[in-house]
Amino acid sequence: MRKRDEAMDISGHAVREKAAVTVQELCIDAAGLVDAADELKSSEGRMQMAYARRVRQGQIELRYLVGDGKGKPFTIWKCPVEDKPIPSLSRMFPMMSWYENEISDLFGIEFADHPDRRSLLFENVPSIVAPFNPDAVPKGGDASRQEGHKLPLLEGAGSDVQRLPFGPVRADVVESAEFLFFYVGEQILHYHPQLFFKHRGMEKRFEGLTIQAGAVMAERVSGVGTIAHALAYCQAVEAAAGCEVPMRGRCLRVLLAEMERVYNHLHYLGNLADATTLKVGQAEGRLLEEQTKQLNAQLTGSRFLRSVLVPGGLRRDLYPEGWLASKLEGLRKAAARYIELLESTDSFLDRLFTNGVLQRKVAFDQGATGPVERASGLDRDLRRDHCYAAYDTVPLTVPIQTAGDAHARFKVRVAELDASIVMIQRILLLLKEGPVHSNCVPAADTFGLGWAESPRGTLFYAVHIDEHGRLGRVKIKSPSFSNWRVFPFTVHDSNMMDYAINEASFGLTIAGCDR
Question: What's the start-to-end Cα distance of the chain, in Å?
């Protein structure tokens, strides 16, 4: 059993040479948080997420995950919650605002000098006890945090400003959310997305589960991110247990993750075509997506790649050799033809150029991730920068665009789609016979951090094993939580007719945000 504050790689082994995958822990009290954050910012580092957990009855600990730059180690700041007020880091790192609000909602902890104290998760709930901290005082008496959904009319905007609440029930098969628009004519002055209607409590559901049951739960956080969530969870457990996945298992994990990326990006292209009213383009994109899902079913028995990953490797061996490469090549040619048709359609391209521009600085400050940040010139990808599974054995293409508009987001995903198919074909050449699973039993009272670059961006699982060897606190940092935070900055001062296309260009999911 490894000490919890010892440097470890994603397999749980002590690291000397491969510092890029090290996870270190550092204890900081509340008084030192601002100084530590200031030092991080001066070194151009980036916060990744923050969460809280009950160490024992009546004692809460805050944890901050920080990355000091591409290829450098992740660090976890541990801060005990005592009588002193916890300073907010949101003014230094704006993307921390949602994480601090989430902690306030779940644990009843308040942050001093927070710029926006509205409730994040419970905007329409008049009174609630913090679900992760039964010792907290109910929030009903704090009116300042219960007025989030009653946004005031923009000051000085005049009587011509219209207020349009759209949702939470909307047309088509879409998830629940309410979008509040303030607009004049066709111009959107301000936009506020209200999410978190489902209150699924996924993180709470992990508590007390066995390690194996946790993998099943992780697969169901977001249906279109089955492999990404299961992979990040399994790697966190493996880090806690100090076990190493066999090489064949690691290669098959890469294959599955890229198959998931392929069908997600094809769905994205069909959805974007639909938003620009290209119904034939939508149908062809969905057909290619379905063909990819059928390959998934032939490979694993599940179109969504469920019930394959477990801590330690795979539940069973898969046998893609001899048939998958040729079918992928046919899919690649069909996708290339489809993309060529989209890129030669003026009515499609015209709706993408300059639509929903996300500036590079805003993307960095507000925590954009995945294709969204890479379309704004930020060169980050966990598969390359913090290698896991067998990504260090195959060349990886990370496409970057700088325009930051809907067209740039489209171009990044188009390039990633082709790169993923090529990567799968290369992985097939590397597959050798061997085991796909090793024993993985974490000791009681241990901790592991796992990550994956999902089709939508960075995904982290922080897994705490309790004193009985079961799951204690499981924290999920999902990419859509980050990108929904960023998205409104591209809607303000835009056009109502462009909104649906802009939203489609982000490729957001509400289930991935509302955990």
Answer: 31
Cα–Cα dist 465/369, whole Å: 28
**Tens-place pLDDT, residues 282-300:** 999 999 999 999 999 999 9
Return the CA Rg of the chain: 23
- Identify whether the C-beta of residue 354 lies closer than 8 Å to the C-beta of residue 418: no
Kindly report the CA angle at 475 between 369 and 144, in degrees rounded to 5?
85
Strand partners, 302: none
Spans of the chain below 50 pLDDT: 1-21, 140-141, 143-144, 146-150, 153, 156
**What dihedral do alpha carbons 503, 504, 507, 510 form, nearest 10°?**
60
Strand order through the sheet with 447-454 = 447-454, 457-465, 471-477
Question: HSE-up of 370 (CA within 13 Å, CB side)?
Answer: 28
The DSSP code sequence of 134-163 is TTSPPGGG-GGGS-TT-PPPPTT--TT-EE
Contact predicate 445/465, CB 8 Å: yes
Alpha helices by DSSP H, 375-436? 382-385, 406-430
Q: Alpha-carbon torsion 390, 392, 395, 399, what sign?
A: positive
pTM exceeding 0.85: yes
DSSP 56-87: ETTEEEEEEEEE-STTSPEEEEEEEE-SSPEE
